[in-house]
Amino acid sequence: MNINKIHHVAIISSNYDLSKTFYTKTLGFKVLAEVFREERNSYKLDLMVNDTYQIELFSFPNPPERPTTPEAVGLRHLAFEVSNIDEAVKELIQKGVAVEPIRVDPHTDKKFTFFKDPDGLPLELYEA
């Protein structure tokens, strides 16, 4: 098997319009395609993070809530690399997003912080 890279990350939202606004307006991801899948009563929004990674944002009727406390087994969080974490945090706060204090990874000496999407999915900013 020859795995080249991560192709996409799929996120299910409880409020499609709110999450679409968050990922496109707040985080600034570019819309590649948007499809309504009538057989599933579900939207699928393909988002581009710069030129590398794609996020698929889904809506489904009545999805179960994501367990976060205590943290459940599975994908823990999604991390985005930024060049300047101080500027990125300032921009998120200006857009009304609650952001945890910036910390330093004791193993890499790199700055990082967490915030949440509209459904409480933990998102991380990690300074390159």
TrEMBL record:
Keywords: Metal-binding. GO terms for molecular function: metal ion binding. Residues 5-128 form the VOC domain. The keyword Metal-binding applies. SUPFAM superfamilies: Glyoxalase/Bleomycin resistance protein/Dihydroxybiphenyl dioxygenase. It comes from the Bacteria. Pfam families: Glyoxalase. The keyword Metal-binding applies. PANTHER family: FOSFOMYCIN RESISTANCE PROTEIN FOSX (PTHR36113:SF6), LYASE, PUTATIVE-RELATED-RELATED (PTHR36113). NCBIfam families: PRK11478.1. This is VOC domain-containing protein. It comes from Metabacillus litoralis.
